[in-house]
Amino acid sequence: MRSPATAALLGVFEGADFGADFGGFGGFGIEGDLHAAAQSVAMERSDWRHGNVGNARVLANDAAHLRMSSRQIEQLRKDEQREATLASRERARLDMLDPNEGLAVKISRYSFSLNQNLVIGTATGILATLQPDTKIRPQRVVMNAPCYGFITVTTIKVANVSVLVGGSEDAFTYSATSVGIHLDMPTLDPSNRATVQGNYAGLAPPPFAVGYAYLFVTTLQGPATVTAGG
Is-above-0.85 flag for pTM? Predict the structure, then answer.
């Protein structure tokens, strides 16, 4: 507004005539031209802000930015970047407390276990089957066989799909200390069942004594929809 030549270069108004007494905006000379042009730009910016809220701050301050030094502009950019970084870190920390906040489908990692009662020293067949309380996608199988040769597994079936495609396996393969043992299993929901079949050989490994009641547990772990009490 103070420098008509600069204003013309910046495209604030068109067709400037700096030698004329009167311009094209109401006959008030160059000052009238500048005033009218400024009002027009202000109205356009006001309309633009209503449709582009995310960039309203930039438009509201662009005139001030033209008067800022490069150092001031760089500091402003750094301040805005720092604010965005802090906001991102805060969101990440809140996700640690409630990763499902605001989501329609809430997912957590659950364990789904099937049990079989055994008597140490008495050989018997294994048949454990159960339906989950919620939809779950198992990714790991864990079995609490205390040693090799204790239980032989012939079937692991999830949602009517057998995930063993060869012969029998030793249950100790799926012990809690096993590393890198994962199976791609189908999603299991409350309308389907998981089933484990096999045989207990009747071994009595230390420290278990013959006649001891032993609970054989097969656990399927993976992401599942959160239950009402979850």
Answer: no
